[in-house]
Amino acid sequence: MRIRYFAWLRHRVGTADEEIELPAEVTTVGALGDWLAARSPGFKEAWQTPGVVRVAVNQTHVTDTAAAVKTGDEVAFFPPVTGG
Amino acid sequence: MIRVQCAPFDAGAETAALTAGRDDLGAVVSFQGVVRRGDGPDAVDAMTLEHYPGMTERELERIEAEAQRRWPLQATLVIHRYGRMEPGEPIVLVVCCSRHRRAAFDACAFLMDWLKTRAPFWKLEETAAGARWVEATAGDEAAAARWSEP
């Protein structure tokens, strides 16, 4: 699974993207965030602050942490967008 | 039509190209976003827009399709830049063409409001005090929320 980080979250984590081997028990966006948080203190701090981290699965916004993730997906974590 | 590009654009030339040869348009409404310098210690020397290549294009296409579903639009154009730009430079252009003004005005406002809360862009400002990421505002969320359908 490819994980991508953007904007200040990319700085906090220290990488723009990484390939991970998805553990079998990780099947939702929420579980994936928790699993990544256990590996990265920078990500953990942001992930545990409500409303700070947004998620896209396969380049589509998801707002439900119960949304499914599976091997082969591209999952992106980023702060609220500020374009325009 | 949507376009994501690093290079500056000419809003007048883009609008002329979009409307060239058409006699069915009664209203052409455009919005151009520009890098604002601001005042005092918060004054911006330059701004860098990061984006999510691939998702950016898909999201802009989804937003444009939603505008076309909601209003009778003859033509639409969204251009959004990424990369580094200085005060006075254009960032974003939205053009909506319709037979009558109301649809064009409303669709243009809708596209900007949704774009600001959904298109995956992030602004990094350079100021005298250093670089800082722009924070999303509750005002932007409220502006997008006013278009929610019952």
Structure description:
The complex is a heterodimer of chains A (84) and B (150). Chain A has 84 residues and is α+β, with helices and mostly antiparallel strands. Helix content of chain A is 27%, strand content 23%. In chain A, strands 2-1-5-3-4 form a five-stranded mixed β-sheet. In chain A, helix 2 crosses helix 3. With 150 residues, chain B is an alpha+beta fold. Chain B has a single domain, classed as Molybdopterin biosynthesis MoaE subunit (Aldehyde Oxidoreductase, domain 3). Chain B is built from four helices and eight strands. In chain B, strands 1-4-6-2 form a four-stranded mixed β-sheet, with helices on both faces. In chain B, strand 7 and strand 8 form a beta hairpin.
List the main descriptive attributes of the protein structure presented here:
heterodimer, A: 84 residues, alpha+beta, Ubiquitin-like (UB roll), five-stranded mixed sheet, 23% strand, globular, B: 150 residues, Aldehyde Oxidoreductase, domain 3, four-stranded mixed sheet, four-stranded antiparallel sheet, 8 strands, 35% strand
Give the secondary structure arrangement, pairings included.
The complex is a heterodimer of chains A (84) and B (150).
Chain A (H helix, E strand, L loop, with lengths): L1 E4 L1 H7 L3 E3 L9 H9 L3 H7 L6 E4 L2 E3 L11 E5 L6
Parallel strand pairs in A: 1-5
Antiparallel strand pairs in A: 1-2, 3-4, 3-5
Helix pairs in contact in A: 2-3
Chain B lengths: L1 E4 L5 H9 L7 E8 L9 E8 L3 H16 L2 E9 L1 E3 L4 E9 L2 H18 L2 E7 L2 E4 L4 H8 L5
Helix pairs in contact in B: 2-3, 3-4
Spatial strand arrangement across the major sheet of chain A: 2-1-5-3-4
What class do helices, strands and sheet pairing of chain A give? Answer: alpha+beta
State the end-to-end CA separation of chain A. Answer: 30 Å
| Beta-strand content of chain B | 25-35%
Note the overall shape of chain B: globular
Count of beta strands of chain A: 5
Note the beta-strand portion of chain A. 15-25%
**Residue share in helices of chain A?**
25-40%
Query: How many DSSP-defined strands of chain B?
Result: 8
CATH architecture of chain B: Alpha-Beta Complex
* Assembly state (oligomeric): heterodimer
- Classify the helix fraction of chain B into a percent range: 25-40%
**Shape-level CATH architecture of chain A:** Roll
Name the structural class of chain B.
Answer: alpha+beta
Strand order of the largest sheet of chain B: 1-4-6-2
Order of helices and strands of chain B: EHEEHEEEHEEH
In the CATH hierarchy, what is the superfamily of chain B? Answer: Molybdopterin biosynthesis MoaE subunit
Q: Rg of chain A from C-alpha positions? A: 12 Å
Integer-rounded radius of gyration of chain B: 16 Å
The low-confidence parts of chain B are none
Fill in the CATH topology of chain B: Aldehyde Oxidoreductase, domain 3
